[in-house]
Amino acid sequence: MAATIKDIARVAGVSTATVSRVINNLGGYNEETEKKVMAVAKALGYRKNENARSLVQKSTNTIGVIMPDVTTAFYGDIIKGIEDTSYEHGYSVILTHAGSHGSRIHESMNLMGERRVDGLIIVSVELHETAIEALTSLGIPFILLSTKTNREDTPYIKVDDYSAAYTAVKYLIDNNHRSIGMAGANPDDSIAGSPRINGYTQALLDHGIKVDLNLIKPGGFSFESGKTAMQAFIEDEASITAVFCASDEVALGIMSTCFENEISVPNDISVVGYDNSKVSHMSIPPLTTVAQPLYEMGREGCLEVIAAIQNKCKIESKVIPHELVVRKSVKKLT
Amino acid sequence: MAATIKDIARVAGVSTATVSRVINNLGGYNEETEKKVMAVAKALGYRKNENARSLVQKSTNTIGVIMPDVTTAFYGDIIKGIEDTSYEHGYSVILTHAGSHGSRIHESMNLMGERRVDGLIIVSVELHETAIEALTSLGIPFILLSTKTNREDTPYIKVDDYSAAYTAVKYLIDNNHRSIGMAGANPDDSIAGSPRINGYTQALLDHGIKVDLNLIKPGGFSFESGKTAMQAFIEDEASITAVFCASDEVALGIMSTCFENEISVPNDISVVGYDNSKVSHMSIPPLTTVAQPLYEMGREGCLEVIAAIQNKCKIESKVIPHELVVRKSVKKLT
DNA sequence: TTGTATGCGTTATCAG
DNA sequence: CTGATAACGCATACAA
């Protein structure tokens, strides 16, 4: 049994109120009692019970984080931003997976509610109407990272996927590529799928290039998805000179299959990724990619939530700028 | 203000005791009151307060996880194993970073203590005497993952780094490599550094190969560390035909620098990694590496901790088997 | 400067 | 089957 303030009070011969005061150094007691209480506390190995505190203070100093997964570099960077920031501000983070397709999202939010987290950060999960209801009914500040909803009252931080995709494809076009494939986006994903596809097609159209639907290989953001897409391009005998990928891992999948088939990147085919996650500079060749400031998104989102908790102010949605990081996976055609 | 069982009791015209009973369906009440209580609970949007529960039950159903970082695939896989498992068993996970060199380890453990986590999992941080004291004084079940101490009373799950390294280097020797470099291990790291170096040197010695200290490039487990090491090999004009790396990321760093210098892997130089993390099959060429069952370590460790929480049994240390995953980064010399 | 008393939301032990 | 009531560990308004 861990010691409580009662134990300290008894041993030190003071009241629990006094103990509480010196433990939280609120001042208003003389030095002697302070010394005595602190000494007893140390002797007894006292450690405050945050849960009991939370109960009376009606605040847990805890931030909940819900994300689909943590095994990709993408999420790793974000959670690091969140954890670092919350730590700096005296908050703990409690983490839960939403399941692969947000399947556990309701249970996750419920759990966060029962734990009475002070704020909530939801990363990359697409929220449907019932989930949004449940979320807002929690009555705590929250923010969405790298995702959004079609409602006004759900603040988010994300890049503009449409224009980020547009930037990437335009870069390819500027390098004289005319036959450009796209891989790894799910058209049914209205947050991060279709906007990227639309950015891709619009860039093509704006430069007088006909869109060939066969050149769009839908899929998930995974490495395997990239491999599959490239295999399809090969089977199609598609005459593409470049591929725009919906994630860095997809890009690596493309490059991996190219390698297996002795197709050289970027000599035979150019590749552009998306995310600028840690893997992008580790690939061979290093990957040219659209950067999302992942760590900063985590940090920024966490900061916003904390501010909202403390000042009870509203959180504004924010579209953050993307940036093209040019490395070595794109060849300039002549 | 969230509704409490008091509110429900008042509205439903029963006592809080009864409400509590039906909420936790403990039985011993008639159907009518159950229906009534449930209806009121739903109407009021009641959500139980886990903190209050924890207080009286003296158990938080929470597991703490401390790791140096979450941005590498290595930790991602482990935490996923932990989170999945704890979720299945009704536990929440609260996560904190220990800081780069375990610098925040004391604060982290203290935080976990104050949160009254029921069990603790510490991943990959080297624990010194004072930290061990603090850890055991928490008085809760804990386990170390991928690390250990020199004391008997600190259970762990890890692979045998020495023999894993030995296996990797022996594989290289079996493929007729005789001049083998090593990169990315820190000799001052007695857990994951020196054992791997020792495994490397012993494999060499056992096969009549002289150990050349110039061929051992110490460093961290990072990509950059691998790049630096390979640059050093090049500057040394070392006549190596293979490099054993202390992590997959180091291996990718080696391969990256090779690429920049037009050294072909595996034709000019063979590379073996360590971890079998997600990046190892995404590299070009796919990386031959020593596999640690990361997800399973997370799962297994979590299971042990939960068992210890519930049955108050001791946790046994466990050395789990490693395995060489052969892919395409090693060339068989003739 | 210090102590008393009360309550936070819940469970659990009694009686009834 | 149900209801008082006392904890749980702590903070705090109010008294002294």
CATH superfamily of the largest domain in chain A, by name, is Response regulator
- Strand percentage of chain A, roughly? 15-25%
Element order of chain A: H for helix, E for strand: HHHHEHEHEHEEHEHEHEHEEHEE
- Oligomeric state of the chains in view: homodimer
For the secondary structure, the number of strands of chain A is 12
Look at the structure and give the CATH class of the largest domain in chain A.
Alpha Beta
Quickly give the CATH architecture of the largest domain in chain A: 3-Layer(aba) Sandwich
Could you give a quick summary of the protein structure above?
Chain A is built from 12 helices and 12 strands. With about 325 residues, chain A is α/β, with parallel strands linked by helices.
What does this 3D model show about the protein?
Two copies of one chain form a homodimer. The first copy, chain A, has 334 residues and is of the alpha/beta class. Chain A folds into three domains: 5-43, no CATH class; 57-159 and 294-320, 3-Layer(aba) Sandwich (Rossmann fold); 161-291, Rossmann fold, CATH 3.40.50.2300. In chain A, 43% of the residues lie in helices and 16% in strands. The first copy, chain A, has helices spanning 5-12, 16-23, 31-44, 50-57, 73-88, 105-114, 129-137, 161-174, 194-206, 223-236, 248-260, 294-311, and strands spanning 62-67, 92-97, 119-123, 142-145, 156-159, 180-185, 216-218, 242-245, 270-275, 288-291, 318-320, 323-325. In chain A, helix 9 links the parallel strand 6 (180-185) and strand 7. In chain A, helix 1 packs across helix 2 (16-23), helix 5 packs parallel to helix 12 and helix 8 runs parallel beside helix 9. The N and C termini of chain A lie far apart (76 Å). At the A-B interface, helix 4, helix 5, strand 2, helix 6 and helix 11 of A face helix 4, helix 5, strand 2, helix 6 and helix 11 of B. Strand 2 of chain A pairs antiparallel with strand 2 of chain B. Chain A binds a DNA duplex (16 and 16 nucleotides) through helix 2 and helix 4.
